[in-house]
Write a structure and sequence with these properties.
Mean pLDDT: 87
Oligomer: single chain
Shape: elongated
Structural class: mainly alpha
Helix content: over 70%
Length: 170
Amino acid sequence: MPQVQEEATFALAEKHRVDPQSPDFSIVSQADILGTLTQVTDTFTIFLAAVAGISLIVGGIGVMNMMLTTVMERTREIGLRKAIGAKKKDISMQFLFEAVMLTFLGGGVGVALGWILSILISSFAGIATSVSLATILLAFGVSAAIGIIFGYYPARRAASLNPIEALRYE
């Protein structure tokens, strides 16, 4: 293909009476088009990954704020549980479990919306889409990771409350 492209360039340059090194025309091959398409696809992939990463961080901060609010609202309950013998690990695991369940619920809603959107795109746009089991497992894995990472601080804060101070909290 490069040889044919070079021969066509020389033939056209001769017909146009221009220097083949600086022609007044251009020849585009399918390889050039494929290279450009690959570059555009790679750029979109990086852009979408950046948007997804920012969304995950914002969502994680939202989960952490919600869990910190929950810890503040349930301070007396935490103090009572600690006063009757609950260990730091028990309190921490409870709040960590709640954070993971909250993100799992969000992951489930996200998977359902993605599946519905995939069906709608296939039906109306004529683009073949599919949702694989690996994608669903990845979504729930990321949801669990966000719950663990951003739920750790509120869980640790709840577990480290002094039971006497917690019982006095209004």
